[in-house]
Amino acid sequence: MNTLQEGLHRSHHKILIAGPVGAGKTTAVATLSDIPPVRTDELATDMTALQKSTTTVALDYGRIDLDGGEHVHIYGAPGQERFDFMWDILSQGSIGLLLLVNNHRPAPLQDLSFFVDSFSQRFQKTQFAVGVTHMDESRAPDLDAYHQILEKRGCQVPVFEVDARDRDDMKSLLRALLYSLDPGLVDHG
Amino acid sequence: MDANTAYSYEFFFRRMGGERYRLVPREEDANVLLIDVDSLEGRRIIHQREFRDRPGQVTVVISANLSHPEQLLFLRKPSSSAALMEVLEAALTRLVSDAVAGRQTPAGSLGQGGNSGSAPQKERVASAAMALEDTRFNHYLFRHDSNRQGEGGTAVFDPDLYLYGAVSRALALAREHRQGVEINWELSSLSLCGVSGRIDSGMVESVMRSVALTRMKPALTLIGEPGKALPLARSEPVDTVLWRLAVWTSRGRLPAGVQGDARFRLTRWPNLTRLLPTPHAMRISALWARGEYGAEETAQRLMISLGDVYSFVAAVQSQGLLRVSATGAQATAALAEPARSGPGQAREPATPAPEAGANRKMGGLLSRILARILA
User: Fold this and answer.
1) How far apart are CA B24 and CA B6, in angstroms?
2) Which residue of B has its CA nearest to A176?
3) Is the complex ipTM more than 0.90?
4) Is B41 in Cβ contact with A179 (below 8 Å)?
5) Which helix (H) or strand (E) holds A58?
6) What pTM was estimated for this model as a whole?
7) Taking CB atoms and an 8 Å cutoff, what residues of chain B touch A169?
8) Min Cα separation A68/chain B (Å)
């Protein structure tokens, strides 16, 4: 059994990273993972080729190793909606969702709406956090616009500007998700 | 504990403690454990100990917050040497009482008579103390003078007496006229663009931090043409500057006009990856995003100092992200918003508090993930 199969087999402690193509999901998994991430990229053959040269068609897998030999599995979900069957599989039993949105895409707020609506049946309103990437390339829309979209859906969740390559950014987003799940969380042990 | 703190304790024990105390590196070897519960490490230890003394060991909780486990000895910060001495003596008395009652003390610990508990006071040597300080924020968050307090004993500051208030007023003026605003005072000036919402301070951070603490009454002057952006060479978003100024000016005090017994709720999470971190901002954000809480209640729930809560109030108020409810009056009002106004301010009623320990297993898992990513 390889690392990925082992992860899927023992997937009761898992965090899902989702978002549109090019949002930085693959990078975010690699940034957070304690092991070299397992990638299932293949050459893109459709419109997504315009966004990036390779795209995730199955999933990305990484792992956070906890004391005592336990692991938290990190899955990067494929961005294209045609693979939404994977979203169901990956969402089951997830601790929470990190939703990444690329602010440099043509309609990032529509992307946000689409993914929030898609995952609203799979996650509770306190069970996700939003990371907005590529804000260095495009400042608009600003984070207020993201909050407005979320508030219309009754969600008051963390929305942070992040660089998926930056470990501190991704750790902050994950911390915000954990505190959202339990604000009284003790910082250690 | 850093070397300087350790040396200070050693010196303190020699001079004030009459050689009856010594510092030990391992907490399990100590008779008296000093725990600063305003620090991450301190909270971890106190949780591990389930807020109780262990056999043969007396715990002294040190905090700026008045709330503390009742069964433990407590020392409030800022504390004098005399107060520290007093609490150590109280700890020794408790240790002796426990020993007489037959409870064990750690190996080689209480006096030359070992565990007898009958040693005279001059022979008692408490292999004392472990102290934990949260130094992360000390470089800019040194505390206010606690002698200067507002009504009801709550420490307050008036933003209008500082650069923070001037920048807030300048921003409102710039937005109203869609023009630049220059902020002038005796030593320097700042330019703020009403179109781009950026500010050119021309100051390095350490200078701005000092200026933030200086009382001033600057003049505000409209500059530039309406609707035309100012060329701001070294500019940055005014929101991030306001946040920093609010934190530096607050130093653990509430902004004037906010009552100490008010209840708070966040309208939105602040962008905490790009704003100067205030102590425990993320935990307070998570709590206040869920419901409405008073400052003291927040400090107690999260086991943090009241000053950290007040600093956070000042910071989020600077961004217009705070909803404040006056207790008793039942009336709610959004705070005056210096940074921006926007839709989405209407909130549903406060949600019930999250149930502590509702899912211990999940809580344990989340804590371990948190510990891992903080490591």
Assistant:
1) 10
2) B282
3) no
4) no
5) strand A54-65
6) 0.68
7) 273
8) 10
- pLDDT tens digits, one per residue of B192-246: 998 888 998 778 887 888 888 888 889 999 998 877 888 887 788 999 999 999 9
B50 to chain A, any CB pair closer than 8 A? The answer is: no
Give the integer Cα–Cα distance in Å for A176 and A181: 9
The two structure tokens encoding residue B360: 């211990």
Task: Give the amino acid at B88.
Answer: L
- Class of residue B142 by CB neighbours under 10 A (exposed 0-12, middle 13-18, buried 19+): exposed
Q: Which residues have CB under 8 Å from B64's CB, separation 6+?
A: B38, B76, B77, B78, B143, B252, B305, B306, B307
Residue B359 carries which side chain, given as an amino acid letter?
N
Tens-digit pLDDT profile for residues B239-274: 999 999 999 999 889 999 999 899 999 999 999 999
B366 touches chain A (CB under 8 A): yes
Closest by CA to A17, choosing from A47, A37, A3, A1, is A37
Q: Find, in chain B, the residue whose alpha carbon is nearest to that of A125.
A: B290
Helix (H) or strand (E) holding B317: helix B306-318
Read off the tokens for B160.
């209008």
